[in-house]
Amino acid sequence: MKRVITVALALVVSVLFSVTAPPLARASERGPGPVPAPPGLTSAEVSFQGFGGLTLHGSVLAPAKARGPVPGVVLVTGSGAGVPREHLRTEAVEFARRGLAVLIYDKRSKGYSNLRRSYSELADDALGAVGALRARPGVDPAKVGLWGLSEGGWVAPLAASRSANVAFVIVVGGNAMPPIRQQVWNETSGLRRAGVSGSLVDRAKPGLARLGADAGLFAEAFFDAQGVLERVRQPLLGVWGGRDLQTPPEDNPRLFAQALRRGGNAHYTFRFFPGADHAAHMTADGGETRGEALAPGYADFVVSWVRDATGGRLPAAPAAFTSPIGADQDYPSKEVSPSPWWASGWMQLAAFVLFVVAFTGYPLTALVRRLRGRSVRPVSRWARLASGAGITAVLGLFVYMLYLMAAGRWPDPGPVLGGRPLPWLVLQALAVATVAATVATGVAARTAWRSPAATVATGERVRIGLLVVAGVVFVPWALYWGLLVP
């Protein structure tokens, strides 16, 4: 049954989530190849086994002249299938220049797509990389930890919670909230910066994310980040850029602290770098594009923290959490709960089918009758408006949401009037017209059918009745999506 709803709902919303098919299974995955060693560093190729026996490949950058075994760190990248190791070359080089052995590897694409991904599998990949780095000559195996960026901020703590071989955890632009909450914040804050407020961001965006999760198109939507952090026993460093526009930089530290404290772990440190973006790179436009250079002092701080954390000088967080200094979060994030039963994927699909059948069936029936030369006087002219406005509002909602998602991370919602984009105002006007026309149609039909002289065919009663039922169901549906809410 779950497969049925997944396939059915995918026909409606898969385009909205840019669905791509996963690649063919392979026993080994290799990216562009080795990362050359800059002066003063060495570069060595490594291979290791990830989840399911998949062979992954990477490069280890390390100081060319080190005095004794050095601490090591495995870098876990953010979202995307098959992200090449080169993506984290800047971080790897800067950390290695300061005395760490750094492993960067090509991310898997097998089993990873917009439709399917598993943080558990990615965590096993990361643990395979930890094992490979621990086995390298010149690396102190007791001082190897994990660094995770963005999506890696969910993966690295999960891996650490499974293995005592992980000495520490660093998250950059990480989240202690479910992915669905982070994603909705990311999308709605972009619209808010464009001047949008009201039901489009408060109802429609969260509703679409929940629908995607119901349809199986939002993998790991409700991943239990808090539960994972409660099981992390290693010291943890959280790093956020003050102009992180993808992850809420003020909300997450408090959530990290709460979860770690519940698990009995007070060995954590949070640091903010003003003017830096999601990846702690400097940004020249307020966080919208990623710069090449790391934030000043970031690499020094990370390496110093690692040396302390692995040298017996564990960080000690204050007993009371204090608000972050240096973060600049424009809008708060909000919890996004799973769909209630009455708004579940099944109910959304049923409502959509009803709207298509009823709203399009009314004019199509009239057209067929006309072509057959059987003209029937309509019970009410309002029925035409209910039919036309209803189907336009339903299809228009999904078309507009598709446009917003296809427009990229920072969409142009169109002209904004009083906090509402013009296309959204048009959809809301159509929704109001649908409700008003449905009421008028129902009243007219009731009056006409009660007349002693009325001779209404059964087919016409079914046609009007179905239209009115669709109009009635349209009311809670439109309220849920925000079309009837300011």
Automatic annotation (TrEMBL):
PANTHER family linked: ESTERASE ESTD
> Which residues belong to the signal peptide in this entry?
1-27
Organism of derivation: Actinomadura meridiana
PROSITE patterns assigned: PRO_ENDOPEP_SER (PS00708)
Q: Which Pfam families match?
A: BAAT_C (PF08840)
TM spans (from-to): 341-364, 385-405, 425-444, 464-483
Answer whether the UniProt record assigns the keyword Glycoprotein to this protein: no
- What name goes with this protein? Alpha/beta hydrolase
Alphabetic keyword roster = Hydrolase, Membrane, Signal, Transmembrane, Transmembrane helix
Domain of life (superkingdom): Bacteria
Cite the InterPro entries for this sequence: AB_hydrolase_Est10, AB_hydrolase_fold, BAAT_C, Pept_S9_AS
One Gene Ontology molecular-function label: hydrolase activity
Give every BAAT/Acyl-CoA thioester hydrolase C-terminal domain span: 129-279
